[in-house]
Amino acid sequence: MWSRLKRLFRSIFGGLIDSAEDPELILQQVIRDMRDKIPQMNNNVAQVVANEKLLARSLEEQSGKLATLDSKVKAAIKMNRDDLATAYIGELQTTQKAVETTRAQLAAAKVASEKAMKFRDNYLIQMKRKSDEAMHLIAQSKQARMQEQLAQTMASFQVGDDSATFDDMREKISRRAAAAEAKADLASFGIDSKMNEIEAEVANIEALDMLSAYKRQMGLIPEAPSAALGEGAPVVNVEKTLGSVEIPSERPKLKE
Hints:
The chain has two domains: 21-154, Helix Hairpins; 168-221. Helices cover 82% and strands 0% of the residues. It has helices at 2-20, 23-78, 82-159, 163-188, 191-217, 238-242.
């Protein structure tokens, strides 16, 4: 039961953590953590290199002390001071042992310094490679997020967009325009319109008849022969047609 309960809590909180994780933020934090380790690593390498330099300086001092003690031993022997020569030889032996120890420590320190420098260089190379990979992954994540947003936008347009509204309004306007055109056609072909056309034609014919009467009275055109009796042609009375219109007495001169 306890194992099942732990598994249940792990699945719940693991799912929450997994859904809350942002790859871009996590990768950026990893890069920052790697960069934060560089100063401490440089400090450690500097300490190893400093230890090597201290040992090298100590070895140099001990080597100089050996040369000095050797000179003192020789000087004491020349002065027949065996007691001093023996003391200097004892100190010389101690210094030689110290030199050997320091030389061994210096060799180990050089190896440690080389390893530390190599480790730091490898870390910098790995950090550069990991940083480039993280930046590439971040760019992919941003591109994926943009594609997701584009897909959501396209999905929203596919489910229900304003195109249906435009189609409906276009159809309504087309129906209205067709109805207005049909009404105009009906109005132009109605009875009132035909009667107006006939009246206009009659008025035009009467005007032409009056114009012909004017021209006959003025002698511009010959008189029309009256139709024979029984032929059914009505006799045109010019004076009745003209009515009360005054006609000038003088006939205008015709242009040659």
